[in-house]
Amino acid sequence: MATTYEIVQGLAQAAANAYDGALDDKGELVKVGLQREEGRIMFDSRKMDGFGVKFEGNMLCVHYHGECSIKEVIQNDFEGEMDKRLADVVAYLKKEYKKVTGNSVSLSPEGEVDVLVQNISRQRSMVQAHRYYKIGGTDAQPLVGEATEDKLAAGWEKFMSQGGLGTRPPNDKRPKGGS
Fold first, then answer.
1. With left for phi above 0 and alpha for psi between -120 and 50, is residue 41 left, alpha or beta?
2. Strand-by-strand arrangement of the 125-135 sheet
3. CA 14, CA 101: separation in Å to the nearest integer?
4. What CA–CA distance (Å, rounded) separates 110 from 57?
5. Burial letters for 104-119: b for 16+ Cβ neighbours within 10 Å, e otherwise?
6. d(CA 148, CA 150)
7. In 51-73, which positions are buried (b, 16+ CB within 10 angstroms) versus exposed (e)?
8. CA–CA separation, 177 and 62 (whole Å)
């Protein structure tokens, strides 16, 4: 069984192997499931998109960012399309993790996909989507949504108990009615 450090290191290496223009063992372009892989590179306009990963305790957050048109956003199930794209990225990460480490990893989705679309101009828009996945086989503690102890509370309570607001120091010789 792999340690948490080895699992995180393997997933990070799998994500790093997906840069734009990466070649596999056979000399072909790596297919992750992004829009930039569609069409003919020399003749079609390229879509700008990519993904990144972030680790939080026993969770993996997969971020997707790219360009889209308003027509794509208005279509019936744009959020479902973003969820499918993130699922394609996760499938690639699992496959590449198996290549890199020789072991398999389980990534189960937690919650739903979060999608943000912003206008760049009248013709172009930018989409950002992310989703959390629970990493199986780790002994790491979950950090998302966990309450933490307030280390400053005791010092703040002591400061507030000393007063000071509305009271005058003993060396203040101004008349009481004045300012």
1. alpha
2. 49-56, 59-68, 125-135, 107-119
3. 9
4. 14
5. ebebeeeeebebeeee
6. 6
7. bebebeebbbbbbbebbbeeeee
8. 63
CA 132, CA 144: separation in Å to the nearest integer? Answer: 10
35 alpha-carbon distance from chain centroid: 19
Q: What is the pTM of this model?
A: 0.69
| Longest alpha-carbon distance in the chain | 89
pLDDT beneath 70, residues of the chain? 1, 21-23, 29-30, 33, 35-46, 141-148, 164-166, 178-179
Task: Give the Cβ contact number of residue 86 at 10 Å.
Answer: 22
Q: Which amino acid, residue 72?
A: E
Amino acid at 33: G
Placement of tokens 């393997």 in the chain: 10
Q: Tell me: the pLDDT tens digits for 44-69?
A: 566 778 888 898 888 889 999 988 88
Rounded-to-integer distance, Cα 2 and Cα 22, Å: 27
